[in-house]
Specification:
Oligomer: single chain
Distance between the termini: 79 Å
CATH class: Mainly Beta
CATH superfamily: Sortase
Shape: globular
Structural class: mainly beta
Number of strands: 10
Strand order of the largest sheet: 1-2-3-4-9-10-8-7
Strand content: 25-35%
CATH architecture: Beta Barrel
Length: 222
């Protein structure tokens, strides 16, 4: 199994989420289906939808917590950690662009700020999501990937479940990550809130059609 970063190397690299100005979300682990070496999801997992081809996400909608926002592609910093969207755009989510895209086989990762020094941010209420809530990702190919939430958990930085978050699953899954737990003015947030979800639908978007072009008045019959 080939991963962009070994699980052992992840220890201690989970973002500090300090004062909402540093990176948020742990470092990259690219977990695609071809890494899974024949391992499918365990029987206890609900059935997932057939995965989609790769296409970057452009918008995320989470009706249960009134989110509809654009998505920005994110890379890794010099320390190998996934950054957060710029603080100048706190209501944007960020997609881990070197990992799977939402709907593609593997684990897609979206991150967002909980708040900033000036007020709330996109994932302020992420912890309020419940099993069965849905997350819809609109993609650049005009398709959509709908995920159903399986669980929402909060993990302190020293107990971040790297394999559960980034490991191969044998199906299309989604993780939403933000800061959580108590806030310390010197160290920042102590934990991460993580939403685990799996692909359940790929509805077709309504095609945009052009109005008919008029060719001028119809000729007179007589």
């Amino acid at each position: 199994m080939t991963l962009s970063v070994t699980f052992a190397s992840l220890a201690g690299l989970v973002s500090a989420c300090s004062d909402s100005t540093e990176e948020l979300g742990p470092p990259s682990v690219t977990a695609r289906a071809d890494d899974a070496a024949g391992g499918g999801p365990p029987p206890a997992q609900p059935a997932a939808h057939v995965p989609m081809v790769r296409s970057r996400p452009v918008k995320v909608a989470i009706p249960a917590i009134f989110i509809e926002a654009p998505v920005t592609p994110l890379g890794l910093d010099e320390r190998g950690r996934l950054g957060a969207p710029p603080l100048s755009t706190p209501m944007r989510a960020g997609w881990h662009r070197t990992g799977p895209s939402p709907g593609e086989n593997g684990t897609a990762v979206l991150v967002g700020h909980r708040d900033t020094l000036t007020g709330p941010a996109i994932f302020l209420n992420l912890k309020a999501l419940r099993r069965g809530d849905t997350v819809k990702i609109t993609r650049a190919d005009h398709g959509a990937a709908v995920f159903t939430v399986d669980e929402v958990n909060t993990y302190t930085k020293d107990k971040f479940p790297d394999k559960r978050v980034y490991g191969p699953t044998g199906r299309a899954e989604l993780r939403l990550i933000t800061c959580g737990g108590r806030f310390d003015s010197k160290k920042g947030y102590e934990a991460n809130v993580i939403v685990f979800a799996h692909l359940t639908d790929t509805p077709k978007q309504t095609a945009r059609t052009r109005p008919p072009v008029s060719s001028g008045p119809a000729p007179s019959a007589g």
